[in-house]
Automatic annotation (TrEMBL):
Name of this chain's protein: DNA polymerase III subunit delta
Gene: holA
Keyword flag Nucleotidyltransferase: yes
GO cellular component terms listed in the entry, alphabetical order: DNA polymerase III complex
SUPFAM superfamilies named among the record's database cross-references: P-loop containing nucleoside triphosphate hydrolases
Organism: Bacteroides pyogenes
Length: 339
């Protein structure tokens, strides 16, 4: 039976229970979870007095494997543990040599290796030794469809509700950069009026700078409803405010939506639950837009729309386009979607 991989929540739960491992190898494309785990270890394993002698932070660009191993082999001073954190570990060459240390790691050392923007080959000896001795964690990119659930969960832990439209506005505006997204969420928490526990679209507009009426969420709604006037008003606003509404963000959202819509046609169960399961959505209510769109667009039309979005993307990058502005490209695309 394959070993079940620990999630970020699993690891944090162990750490909070003071269950420590000799090594935490944190790797992957999503920096947010890597930083979250490493920062928790740095902040909570040692008290302030112990940190002075027993917390070592080094950077992969400045050290080699031997330096890292020598640091890990030191014994703690006046403390049960020492913590060694290696950031930017993807810069370290010959990382495979760490496998020799892991055969007999020092259990008083908590070695945390942060390997961003890449992963170890799990078939190699080093990965096997890490999993035997401690934790090999892969931090994967959050999919666009998972962002609303991530936002809702993050805010619930802080005792705050977000209206669905506010959640979608923020997810569409920021995208899957979780570090930036959580920064914007913290900004919303700080700016909440005293005693308030609910985030509204108006607060998103005021504090994040996204118009509650002219944004990608509202454009998508206009296209689902085939509301020509509303869609063109939004495009005009985008054209007048290109810095806050870049065309690449809009095209990415539209491509994601219509690609998922194409998949929704193949769902054996066309209910909210069935489509949510087909598309990997966290909550059934997220499937409502796809159900509404299936009543407005045929599968053949959806395929054509996906092609038109690809063409618009190429033109926005200068391919076969010598004179059209971003506004012209988006206006033409929306016309082709709606007609």
């Amino acid at each position: 039976m394959a070993k079940q991989e620990l999630t970020c929540d699993d690891i944090l739960k162990e750490l909070k229970a003071k269950q420590y491992r000799p090594i935490y190898y944190l790797m992957g494309e999503e920096s947010y979870y890597i930083d979250l785990i490493a920062d928790y270890i740095a902040e909570h394993v040692l008290n302030e007095t112990e940190k002075e002698f027993n917390l070592t932070v080094m950077y992969g660009s400045d050290v080699d494997v031997a330096t890292m191993i020598n640091a890990a082999k030191r014994y703690p001073m006046m403390s049960e543990h020492q913590v060694v954190i290696v950031k930017e570990a993807q810069s370290i060459r010959n990382m495979e040599e760490l496998a020799y240390y892991l055969r007999k790691p020092l259990h008083s050392t908590i070695l945390v290796i942060c390997h961003k923007h890449g992963t170890l080959d799990r078939r190699k000896k080093l990965a096997v030794e890490i999993e035997k001795a401690g934790v090999l964690f892969e931090s994967k990119k959050c999919k666009e469809a998972q962002l609303p659930a991530f936002i809702t969960s993050y805010m619930k832990r802080k005792g705050i509700d977000m209206e669905p439209k506010a959640t979608s506005m923020l997810a569409d505006f920021v995208g899957a950069d979780l570090s930036r997204l959580t920064g914007e969420l913290e900004k919303l928490v700080i700016t909440l009026p005293a005693g308030s526990k609910r985030i509204t679209p108006e607060q998103i507009e005021k504090n994040i700078g996204i118009s509650k009426d002219y944004n990608n969420f509202e454009l998508k709604s206009a296209l689902i409803e085939k509301d020509v006037l509303k869609a063109n008003r939004i495009i005009k606003y985008f054209e007048e405010n290109p810095k806050t509404n870049p065309i690449q963000m809009t095209l990415s959202l539209l491509f994601s939506f219509y690609s998922n819509l194409m998949l929704a046609y193949y769902a054996p169960d066309k209910s909210e639950n069935g489509i949510a399961a087909m598309l990997g959505l966290k909550t059934p209510w997220q499937a409502r837009d796809y159900i509404a769109a299936m009543h407005k667009y045929s599968g053949v039309k959806t395929m054509k729309i996906i092609g038109e979005i690809r063409y618009a993307d190429a033109k926005s990058k200068g391919v076969e386009n010598s004179s059209q502005t971003e506004g012209d490209i988006l206006r033409e695309l929306v016309f082709k979607i709606l007609h």
